[in-house]
Amino acid sequence: MVEPVPPCTIQGLVKQYGAKQALNAVSLTLQAGEIAALLGPNGAGKTTLIGCLLGFLSADTGHIHLFGEDINSLTPQTRNRIGFVPQTMTGLTWFKVGELLTYLAGYRAANTPQDNRWLQWADLDPQARVKSLSGGERQRLAIVLALRFCPDLIVLDEPVASLDPQARYDFMQLLPDYARAHGATVLISSHIISDLEKICDQFIIMQKGHIKLTLSHTMLHEHIRLLSAAPPTDWGLIPLAPGLNGGIWVSGWHTALTENAAQAGITASMPDIENLFLALSK
Ligand SMILES: Nc1ncnc2c1ncn2[C@@H]1O[C@H](COP(=O)(O)OP(=O)(O)OP(=O)(O)O)[C@@H](O)[C@H]1O
Fold first, then answer.
1. Residue ranges, CATH 3.40.50.300, the chain
2. Nearest Cα residue to 163 out of 119, 116, 121
3. Closest residue (by CA) to atom 24 of ligand 1?
4. CATH of domain 8-208
């Protein structure tokens, strides 16, 4: 059987801004239908990685393929399969909302599928000028523009920071619904980690230009634990970081160790990605 081509593969990506190394040998693969969280403190390199991945920035070395095509020679068909939500929407602000939606729809074939749930969710006045929209309204529009025509690969750079709590909550319900229904692949960067824990299959944690840890949702819940004390070395666990309030984060946990932990008086707590992220960032 022929393996499906992953929607995104990145190999050995290096990006330097003058003396500043923003990306240092970053490699990663997104599988079809996967929802991946891109996490990292300010300056970790998330926006730079996204910029390279979408071809807005050119990397110094490394390779990026989207749907099997080199990023430097994407066909228009493949470009149309990608939706991007930036941190803030700039440009095209002289349009009215309705005009802009119609104008951009003109670039699509008449039979392009549409998902109108995004328009309903955004609840924007078609007569409003884009430049008069509030920050959150503008962000809703950016989301509609990126997702309305059912992209297969969705890249979102801090999409929810300016949304109000209800809009953010509804968006976080709609995004996985959309992705699962369309089989779309999602890469979402956000500092609101608690939002991502429930919806993501993979967590990519960046630090200082490299990927510090990549974890699947299953791996996180089955093989990562916060132990109340350092385990004996013969348990074969890999230390990840000191816990914020004592103890130690480890990987390699398995249920057979529950008994050993009880006998040694060590408590093994279930992980949450936010606390693990904070411990790794210390
Ligand atoms: N145009 C630029 N010129 C010089 N340095 C830059 C430029 N853009 C980004 N950098 C630097 O590269 C590093 C990575 O920046 P990047 O914006 O990718 O981080 P980030 O993880 O997206 O951060 P944030 O969470 O704050 O958005 C930072 O140290 C930043 O100062």
1. 8-208
2. 121
3. 42
4. 3.40.50.300
**Which atom, in ligand 1's list, is nearest to the CA of 40?**
21
Partners of residue 226 on adjacent β-strands: 249, 269
Total-model pTM: 0.93
Q: How many CA within 13 A on the CB side of residue 247?
A: 19
pLDDT value at residue 282: 81
The residue whose C-alpha atom lies closest to atom 3 belonging to ligand 1 is 17
The H or E element spanning position 138 is: helix 135-147
The rounded percent of the chain whose pLDDT value lies above 90 is 84
Say how many Å lie between the CA of residue 85 and the centre of ligand 1.
18
12-60 confidence digits (pLDDT tens) = 999 999 999 999 999 999 999 999 999 999 999 999 999 999 999 999 9
Quote the CA–CA distance of 16 and 62 in Å, as a whole number: 12
Cβ–Cβ under 8 Å, residues 162 and 121: no
Residues with CB under 6 A from ligand 1: 17, 20, 22, 40, 42-48
